[in-house]
Amino acid sequence: MDIQTILVIILFAGALFYIGRIIYRSVSPKKGGCGSNCKCGVDFSNIEPKNK
């Protein structure tokens, strides 16, 4: 193998790792909510609903 083939293989493996990491991070659940003040990370199980 010459140096060009080795460099292409390393670059290709890096690109696969990068794309796999992006896909994994977009699918994996978030631990602390999204941080945009939408209350998606808040636990409402202890709150009783009010009836108007």
Automatic annotation (TrEMBL):
Q: Does the keyword Transmembrane helix apply?
A: yes
* Record's keyword terms, sorted: Membrane, Transmembrane, Transmembrane helix
List, alphabetically, the Pfam families matched: FeoB_associated
Keyword Transmembrane carried by entry:
yes
Q: Report the transmembrane regions from the record.
A: 6-24
Q: What is this protein called?
A: Attachment p12 family protein
Lineage of the organism: Bacteria, Pseudomonadati, Bacteroidota, Sphingobacteriia, Sphingobacteriales
